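ERR on first pass: missing label on line 2. Operator R.T. fixed the label and resubmitted. Corrected input:
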Amino acid sequence: MKSISLYVDKDSYLTRLHPFAKMVYILAAISVPFIGGALWMYGLFLVISLGFLISGGILKKVFPLIAFSFTILITIFLIHGLFNKENETLLFRIGALAFYREGLLYASRIGLNILNMLLAFAAFVLTTKPADLVDDLEQMGFSPRFGYMITSVFQIIPQMMGTMNTILDAQRSRGMETEGSLITRAKAFIPLISPVVSSSLINTRERAIALEVRGFGSKTKKTFLREHRLSGGDKGFMFLMALLIAASVVWRIVYGIH
Amino acid sequence: MNHLFKTRLHAATFVLIPACIGINYLGKLFASVLKLPLWLDSIGTCIGGVLGGPIIGAVCGAANNLIFGFTTGDSITLIYALTSLGIGAAVGIMARLGHMEKLSGAILTAVVAGLTAVVISTPLNVIFWGGATGNVWGDLVFGWSQSAGLPVLLGSFLDELVVDVPDKLITVLIVFAIMKGLPKKLTSLYDVNDEVEILD
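pass 2 clean. output:
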C-alpha cells in the first residue's frame, strides 16, 4: 500500500534531528522574515533550507512540491504585475500586457514567502516519519488518543484508496462514464464518492468496538518502547533558532519596517 | 439547545475523525481525477460536524489541515486550518439546530458554511497570496476586480465567494444525501439526545 507521507527513508543528520528541533526551524524560517520585514531575510532562509535539503540528499524530492504551487505563483505575478493599485513605473511589455515595477515587487515578496515556507516545510516533511512524530509528541505529554487519531489517518487513507479504485472499476464496468464533458464528470462524482464514504463510516463502528475491547478508554499511564529525548545538539539547534527570532525583533525595533 | 456544544469523547469519535479526514482526502482526489473546478475537500469535515457536533467538526477540520500540512508538504493547506475549523463548527452548529433534516435546511447550512469559509479565508488570502486563491474561476474574478480598480480585500472576497459558496453547497448536499443513507445503528453512536434506560 502506498503511503501518503512524503518521508524519505534515508539515514542522515536531518532524520536524526529531533522533530521538535525541525519544527522550531520552521517557526524561525517563517517568523524571522515576517518580523524583520526585510527582503534579504527570505533569501537567507531560502539558502539555509536549500543547504539542509542538499546536505540531506533529498533535493530531488522537493521539485514536485514546488511545481505544485507554481500555478498560483504565476497567477499572483500576473494579477499584481498587471493590475496592482500602486502600479506606476512601467517595467516591460509583452504585447498588450504592461508589467509594472510596484506590482512585481509586491508579487515577488509573496512569492519568496511561499517558496520559503515550502522549503522549510519540505526539510521537515521529507525527513520526519509521521509515526515517530506522533511518538515524540506523546512522550512530551500529548494525549495518546489524539496520537492514535493521527496515526490512524495514515492507515485509513491507503485503505480508502483501495476501496475507491475498486468502486471506480465497478462503476465503470457498469457503464458509467467518468470522462467527457463537465456535466458527465460532475454526474460521476456522486456514484463514486457515496459508496466509499458510507462504507468507511460504517467501518468506523467496528473499529470503535475493536479499540474499546483493547482498552482504548483506559486511563492508566502509557509507557514507551523507545524513549527519544532531546540531545545536546537538538537543544543547541533550538537555542540558535530562538536567537535568530530574537535578533529579528531587535532588527525590527532598530530599523523599523523595510 | 443546551446540547448545542455537547460532545461525546469515546472511542467512536476518535475513529470518526480519521475517517472524516480520509473522506476529505478522497473528495479532493475524486475532484482532481474528474477534473472538476471545485475543491470538494470538506465533505468529511461536514460529516464530522453533522454526526459529532460542532466541536468534533472543528477538530476534524483543523486536524485535517494540520496533518496534511505536516506530512504531505502541502504547507499551503496549513494556513487554511482556521477556515476548516470554522466550516466544521458552522456545519456542526447548524446540524445541532436541526437544519440538516430537510433539504431546505441543508441549503441554508451550506450558505452559512460557505460564508464562514469566505469570511475566514479572505484575510488569509490577502496576507499570504496578495488576494489570489489558486482556483481558475475565482482568480479570473479577482483579476477582473483588480483591473477595475476595486480594493484588494473586496476583490479577494469576491474571488473566494464565487468559489466557496457553490463548493460548500455541493459538499453539503452530498453530505445530506449520504447522511440519509446511513444506518441508524451507526448514527445512534453519536446521538447526544438519547437516554439510557435501565430495566432493573
